[in-house]
Amino acid sequence: MFDTVLIAGLGLMGGSMAKTIKARTLSRVLGWNRTRATAEQALADGSIDAIATEALYKEADLVIIGLYPQATVDWLLENMPKMKKGCVIVDMVGVKQFMVDRLEQAALDAGVHYVGGHPMAGREFSGLDFALSTLFDGASMIFVPTKSSTERVLEQLEAYFMSLGFGQTVRCTAQQHDHMIAFTSQLAHVVSSAYIKSPEADKHNGYSAGSYKDLTRVAKLNETMWSELFLCNAEPLAQEIDEVIKHLDEYRKAIRAGDREELTILLRDGRERKERLG
C-alpha cells in the first residue's frame, strides 16, 4: 500500500510510529530528524531503514510528520515541492485548524495529498529513548480530510493505520477536532499542572494514593510543546478552562456555606455523568 514511508521527527511519537511500521508492515522506513544524532540512533537500533536525505524524499509514498506545530508547517512548506506527485502526507500535531489553514493550499499547489492526523496516544515522557512499537495499540487515529485529499486516500490511510494496531479511525473537521481536544486532552494537562502547584504537594508522601497519581500524571509534560499547542488552540481551550472554573466555584460555594444538600447534588451529578459517559 505504502512501500516507502518517510517519518520527519523521531521523538516519542515519530520514533514510536517508525518502530510500529517496522514491526508490523513491510514498508521501508526513512527517518529525518533535526538533530542528526537522533536519526543515527534510530538507524542503529533498527527503528528506520535509512536516514532520509532530500534526494530520498521523492521515494516516499507516505510522509508522516512528528514535529511541533510551527516546525511541521515550516518543514512541509519547504519540502512538499520536493516530494513526488500524489504522495500522501499526514501530520501528528495535536491541533488541526492551525495546520490546515497553513498547509491545505500548499499541498494542492505541490500536487500532494495532505491529511491532518492525530494519534490519540502518548506518554508523559519525550524523545526517541521512550518510543514504543506498542504505543498505538488500541488507540484512536483521527483524520481530518482537506481539499487536497481524496476518498481513496482516506480509505488507504484508514486501512494502513488499522494494520498498525490502532483500535479505530475517526474522521472529523479541523474545528470539531480542536474543540474536542481542548476538552479531552489539553484541559486535562492544564488542570494537572495547576493541581500540582498546591503548597501541600511537597508534603504528599504518606498521604497520597491513586487519586493523586491519576490527577498528577500528565503534569510531567513537555512544556515547550504543550505551550505551543495551547496557544494554537487558545479560544477553545480558554472556554473549557472557564467551564471548569465555573463548576469549581459551585463546589467552593457549597462547601463554604456548609450546604450538604447542594454538595451532594453536585457530586451526584458528576458521578452520574461519568457513569453515563464511561
Task: List its salient traits.
278 residues; alpha/beta; Rossmann fold; 6-phosphogluconate dehydrogenase C-terminal fold; 2 domains; 8-stranded mixed beta sheet
> What would the principal axes of the Cα set say about the shape?
elongated
Q: Number of folding domains?
A: 2
Q: What helical percentage do the residues reach?
A: 40-55%
Indicate the multimeric state.
single chain
CATH superfamily of the largest domain: NAD(P)-binding Rossmann-like Domain
| Proportion of beta-strand residues | 5-15%
Mean pLDDT across all residues, rounded? 97
The helix-strand sequence is EHEHEHEHEHEEHEHHHHH
Largest sheet: 8 strands, mixed
Number of helices: 11
Strand order of the largest sheet: 3-2-1-4-5-6-7-8
User: Unreliable stretches, pLDDT < 50, 5 or more residues?
Assistant: none
Content-based structural category: alpha/beta
Question: Compute the gyration radius: what is it?
Answer: 21 Å
Can you give a write-up of this model?
The chain is of the alpha/beta class. The chain folds into 2 domains: 169 residues, NAD(P)-binding Rossmann-like Domain (Rossmann fold, 3-Layer(aba) Sandwich), CATH 3.40.50.720; 101 residues, 6-phosphogluconate dehydrogenase C-terminal like domain (6-phosphogluconate dehydrogenase C-terminal fold). It starts with a strand and ends with a helix. 35% of the residues are buried.
Characterize this entry briefly.
The chain has 278 residues and is an alpha/beta fold. 52% of the residues lie in helices and 13% in strands.
List the helices and strands and how they pair.
Elements: E1 4-8, H1 12-24, E2 28-32, H2 36-44, E3 50-51, H3 54-57, E4 62-65, H4 69-79, E5 88-91, H5 97-110, E6 113-119, E7 140-144, H6 151-163, E8 168-171, H7 174-195, H8 210-216, H9 223-232, H10 234-256, H11 260-277
Parallel strand pairs: 1-2, 1-4, 2-3, 4-5, 5-6, 7-8
Antiparallel strand pairs: 6-7
